[in-house]
């Protein structure tokens, strides 16, 4: 599969027939953009697509995204994005915010940008906006665009980056709302996760593959690791990794009662490569070593 690399904001802007307001950051309006050739792309910058129409043109990873009105899709540098042909007789509407990582260098946002985990969500896990949320996003984008169109001075970068951070913080709030409004879907995912772990530990996979990972569980459930992790954290109060560890320890507590098995045998059955790693985790979670727990009971 050939992947087209676009490294700079200016290169992307030129491809879309848009004026480059700043070599490292730009806001584009779909009303005035050339169609990007259908292909697979790797962007060297952050992209935020605000889609206001259902046009079916983006596919991220293996998942197609069927746009509803007012949706936000976040893409981090280095991620692979497939652009497909628009649906017939449909002209996309919306905005695109793009900014290069170098634009953030030396700022506080540069140090925390990776904490905005939705940049690693798949496009089918996009943020669906309410009318009020859409207006807030458009207002922030307009403020950034106005600033870029001014005569740039020493305050410009600070102001623009502060508006980007405000936007990202609002996106966190909007995603929290979306997790709540889709609680019934999230509950279903949690149940599937629990069933997945139960099935996994009843099989011989722990001995042949090892302990289940967050990434492998997310892939089985057709979710991106970050989205899956955030969903589990919101539903249970613990991270997906901690949830797996709790499951492992609960199963271990049952196995420890079988005095015909050594602690090392139990560790290998659970998927631990080294028994000492099992002992360390068990003591961390229960306050007792496996041997102490067995003798206590």
UniProtKB/TrEMBL annotation:
One Pfam family of this chain: HTH_18
InterPro entries per record: Homeodomain-like_sf, HTH_AraC, Tscrpt_reg_AraC-type_HTH
Keywords (A to Z) from UniProt: DNA-binding, Transcription, Transcription regulation
Domain HTH araC/xylS-type: 195-296
PROSITE patterns: HTH_ARAC_FAMILY_2 (PS01124)
PANTHER family, per the entry: ARAC-FAMILY TRANSCRIPTIONAL REGULATOR, TRANSCRIPTIONAL REGULATORY PROTEIN
Stated name of the protein: Helix-turn-helix transcriptional regulator
Organism: Chryseobacterium tagetis
